[in-house]
Amino acid sequence: MSASSADSLKPKHGPKVLQLREMIAQPVFAAFCAGGVAGAVSRTVVSPLERLKILFQIQSAGREEYKLSVGKGLMKMWKDEGWRGLMRGNGTNCIRIVPYSAVQFGSYNFYKKFFETSPGTDMGSLRRLVCGGAAGITSVFFTYPLDIVRTRLSIQSASFAALSEAQKARLPGMWATLTLMYKTEGGIFALYRGIIPTVAGVAPYVGLNFMTYELVRKYLTPEGEKNPSAVRKLAAGAISGAVAQTCTYPFDVLRRRFQINTMSGMGYQYKGLFDAVRVIIAQEGIKGMYKGIVPNLLKVAPSMASSWLSFEMTRDFLLTLRADSEDL
Predict the structure, then answer these.
(1) Would 24 be classed as within a structural domain?
(2) In sequence order, what are the residues at sequence separation of 6 or more whose Cβ sits closer than 8 angstroms to the Cβ of residue 74?
(3) Is pTM beyond 0.70 here?
(4) Which parts of the chain are Solcar repeats (predicted)?
């Protein structure tokens, strides 16, 4: 086949298509899109365990409806509410997690530019930790109202909410809950209730997650190769998630408690962060700061593993859309 005929078989793209492909293939934009995909995949995979964790977390002393093992807790959700109970709040969670995860991964790659001496160089553990923490804070501020609504939706139909069947039939959805909170609980501040313990937990969590993942990924990459296998990426994601979650879990409990602090019938009236810690430890012991950690750790492995794997696969695909990649 002649060179001219071979050239004629190559796909022809107009300038606008090439410009679009070039934009999508930019590292920050590719990371942003891949992060959104990773968030949706990972949260849907572990939705039942995520909801069970929240139900464990928000139980104060004297409330024992969900003082159960993980298996029995999941069975109770199934018996009380059917398969919808296992997935309740997941739609809102995905609507929240897609932009949350996209902003987190995208901003991490953006912040990396200020710490790398040259593109692709090793930043070191401390700089990864700082970049990850900054990315976590950025993503929280953009998506926090959806997080607080997800928490409300996750618990409003559970049995300890003491609702009649008629009340359960007219439970508000995501936008109705947002509007109701805004109108009756203090405007925009109501939608950001609990953000201080959230930021206090998210910054080190995301920082530890990114730092640990890149360290473990590098360790698991065979010498002379740039990319580990999918199985090794899954392992790196599971390890990084478990380390980060265990170190920062008490902040997650505090976040959930503050998100429902004004919710009727739940019995929480914390005056501040330190008051909440004092009351929880006094009434529930140190274990109160780790309520729900078992289902949380059980979900970490599949959640973070699927998140990092789907992120890398999507990002790598988008990076191949660069116009010059066709010549490689």
Answers:
(1) yes
(2) 48, 49, 52, 86
(3) no
(4) 26-114, 123-219, 228-317
